[in-house]
Amino acid sequence: MEIYIKKNAFSRIESGNKTLESRKYKGIFKNITEGMIIKFKCNNNSMIAIVKKINIYDNINFLLNSIDISKVGNNIDINKYRDILNICYHDFNDMMITIEFNLI
Asked: CATH topology for 2-103?
């Protein structure tokens, strides 16, 4: 499975600072399972990871109250992450998934 991400997130994954990806729980993200091999892609670059753990949340607020923010990388705080998710998703009422992973 290929997951397309922005350059900033790709760099944080590559450096080992980001080990948690958050997405709306829809489409291909409903098919992710623990132990699955995934490929993060950004332009012509890619990295391979194994899914360590997934969590599904009723909405972004449940996600924000449950995650270990340090796994998002970049020394971000929960309020800044809330702002980023708001820009990306605009709707805090949809189900969300977090994918914890290790690069291989």
From this structure: 2.30.130
